[in-house]
Amino acid sequence: MGRATEVDIVVMAAPLADRPAERGGIEALVSLVADDMERVNSFILSRTGSDVTLIPEVASHLISSGGKRLRPMLTLAFSRLSDYEGDGGVRLAASVEFMHTATLLHDDVVDESDMRRGKLAARMVWGNEASVLVGDFLLGQAFKMMVEVGSLPALDVLASAAAIIAEGEVWQLSAAKDLSTDEQAYLGVITAKTAALFAAAAEVGPILGGLGERERQAARAYGNALGIAFQLVDDALDYGGVSELLGKNVGDDFREGKITLPVVLALQRADEAERAFWSRTLENGDIAESDLEIAVGILRRHGTLEATVARARHYGDIAVEALDAFPDSPLRRALIETVAFCIGRAY
Amino acid sequence: MGRATEVDIVVMAAPLADRPAERGGIEALVSLVADDMERVNSFILSRTGSDVTLIPEVASHLISSGGKRLRPMLTLAFSRLSDYEGDGGVRLAASVEFMHTATLLHDDVVDESDMRRGKLAARMVWGNEASVLVGDFLLGQAFKMMVEVGSLPALDVLASAAAIIAEGEVWQLSAAKDLSTDEQAYLGVITAKTAALFAAAAEVGPILGGLGERERQAARAYGNALGIAFQLVDDALDYGGVSELLGKNVGDDFREGKITLPVVLALQRADEAERAFWSRTLENGDIAESDLEIAVGILRRHGTLEATVARARHYGDIAVEALDAFPDSPLRRALIETVAFCIGRAY
Questions:
Q1: Is B236 within 8 Å of B344 (Cβ atoms)?
Q2: Check: CATH 3.90.1150.10 for A19-344?
Q3: Cofactor(s) for this protein (chains A, B) (predicted)?
Q4: Cα dihedral sign, A32-A34-A36-A37
Q5: Which class for A290: exposed (0-12), middle (13-18), buried (19 or more C-beta within 10 A)?
Q6: What is the end-to-end Cα distance of chain A in Å, rounded?
Q7: CB 3.0-4.6 Å disulfide test: which of A237, A287, A319, B35 passes with A225?
Q8: Could you give phi then psi for residue B3, rounded to 5 degrees?
Q9: Is the pLDDT of residue B8 over 50?
Q10: Where are the domains of chain A?
């Protein structure tokens, strides 16, 4: 359950063509918001500037390291879908990306991660101190940018998300190594930790556009369900996904003792020997070289990677349904394809 | 230059009576804002509540550990001084205290501190992870509370302070162990790291009261100058203060290699042997048992603790002058006494 980063999208995109039923892409979304996204990118660059040179160094290490910027694209897409014409969407999108980057910097410290998006984690280059403090700086800048937009309801949505995300992270920390974590508790954690920012990123669109409660709820529901689906697929990918194609971050969650849904479901079906295996590896952190392979074997035997992706598909359906609140348009179709794309990553 | 915590006030208060010229107290301020402060305290308690029990545990460890809550008292005092009658002051005061608590939690991780306010630092009890994440949670809650008050100008002031504080911290991190830090650079760091929150805490008072730019600037100037004075006295106290009374945190800055003003001034006056001493201890972190005593001896020989406090007195005068923008009242007199009190801590 490392926080999902969009670089995975790029890595796993190729095999999609084999499963036409779930073909989807973010190309349409990317191209429809491309102009605004360019402004978001310059905005991000200008707001990581500081006379304290360590700040742009650390921030750009992470920000320039790729990632498809799915979250800010949601803000831009839902602003446009809500016929908003001002430039507040660009600022809020940049805020959303800053919030995300800040949590990545702090996550790496919390998880003691060595790598992030295929590069050394910032904390490995500049130390934990810099990661904590530059994260705080980005969070402060995010709030400044939001205030500039001047929408109190949008501020409320994003500030609430910030608190909920941190609460989810602490929850995850408390639940780490706890084999009694059940599916409901797990969904609670990822709803807070991952989906809250997707939901907020989408909801501020209709807020900027001055639309009503119906569209706000719809955007929020889309973001929330997409975020859950995204994280579940990420969890499956961390054990190699359903296709046995091994991506580069495989095994991170296992090594960090994180109890993700594939494991929660496997624990429900576990015999005594398997329970002892999970207890030794995840609870006690006693992990040998060959244990990841054994873990993947158990998950495959019980089909829990497929079961996890099946749940992702369920949330994907909810996300698509939520879009009914908006009239058909190229952008709405692009958001539907984005759902299929996120789920298709699992294959 | 550990972040100043108000517990020092309590520890160092007694000897004040010996210097009637600088007699001052915060008793008047405390008693004038007591009713509102009680509401701030209940508010703080209610907003650290979470089903994730680790959050109230960590937060209350620090929040209940004392501290005079000088920063939120500034918000309450300047709200009242500005004839503001609503309950926004209580919420903003609680936000200010949350921002402060969040930075303390993160500071301890950055400084690898073992103790805070005479107790084990939260990170020693629950780990760095919990300190980082609970700090993030408190920051999120702080912004939520600010949004509830609904004043965009107040939000702007506090969000800017959040970014500036973090910028100051990163700056301090970059300057750590750097013997070429000069007085101006040092003042820049503490203006950002410490004074920015004092300034913002005060400025939101006249904003809530609907007063004009003159009172806003005056409140800001008071908070800024008081914050600088407060930090300078704290820096002197970290080497035992001017009275050679050793408080309990003496030597923290020295052991952490922090270049504070007493050292900056001593470096200006250093001969070759002294420069070699500072280089070995602060730059290279090669510190023997007896080195703190040697350091204090050098600072006393050059009179740089007195010189640091003289500068604090200069900022104290600026703070008092700034209050001219407000008519005489018991509250205004209490704010004047507070300045004398903060400086009197040094003796």
A1: no
A2: no
A3: Mg(2+)
A4: positive
A5: exposed
A6: 18
A7: A319
A8: -60, 135
A9: no
A10: 19-344
Of B52, B161, B173, the CB nearest to A170: B52
What is the C-alpha to C-alpha distance for residues A68 and B337, in angstroms, rounded to an integer? 56
pLDDT of the residue at B23: 56
**B133/A106 touch (CB, cutoff 8 Å), yes or no:** yes
Per CB-CB distance under 8 Å, the chain A contacts of B140 are 159-167
pLDDT at residue B13 greater than cutoff 60: no
Token code pair at residue A94: 């940049």
Of A106, A137, A150, the CB nearest to B132: A106
Nearest to B133 among A52, A55, A173 (CB): A173
User: Does the beta-carbon distance from A164 to B136 stay under 8 Å?
Assistant: no
Backbone phi, psi, residue B4, to 5°: -60, 130
E strand or H helix that includes residue B210? none
Element (H, E) at A119: strand A119-120
Residue A119 — φ and ψ, nearest 5°?
A: -120, 165
Confirm if B37 and B77 have CB atoms less than 8 A apart. no
Question: Chain A contacts of B152, Cβ < 8 Å?
Answer: 147, 150, 152
Pull the structure tokens for residue B187.
Answer: 């003042």
Reference A140, options B136, B150, B46; nearest CA is B136
Read off the pLDDT band of A61 (50, 70, 90). confident
Whether the Cβ atoms of residue B176 and residue A56 lie closer than 8 Å to each other: no
* Residues of chain A contacting residue B150, judged by C-beta atoms under 8 Å apart: 152
State the pLDDT confidence band at A40, using cuts at 50, 70 and 90. very high
Q: Residue B57 and residue B197: Cα distance in Å, rounded?
A: 25
Is any Cβ of chain A less than 8 angstroms from the Cβ of B104? no
- Classify each residue of A198-219 as buried b or exposed e, where b means 16 or more C-beta atoms within 10 Å of its C-beta: bbbbbbbbbbbbebeeebbebb
Average pLDDT, chain A: 90
What is the rounded CA–CA span in Å between residue A347 and residue B242?
69
Please say whether the beta carbons of B58 and B121 come within 8 A: no
With helix as H, strand as E and coil as C, how does A38-49 read?
A: HHHHHHHHHHCC
B172-230 pLDDT, tens per residue?
Answer: 888 888 999 999 999 999 999 999 999 999 999 999 999 999 999 999 999 999 999 99
For A232-273, the pLDDT digits (tens) are 999 999 998 877 655 567 898 999 889 999 999 999 999 999
List Cβ neighbours of B45 (8 Å cut-off, separation of 6 or more).
Answer: B60
Residues forming a β-bridge with A119: A116
Amino acid identity, position A77:
A
Say yes or no: domain B22-344 is CATH 3.20.20.210: no
Partner-chain residue, chosen from B134, B136, B170, that has the shortest CB–CB distance to A137: B170
Q: Which two tokens stand for residue B56?
A: 């109230």
| Sign of the alpha-carbon torsion through B82, B86, B87, B88 | negative
H/E element, A115: strand A115-116
Structure tokens belonging to residue A89:
């969407």
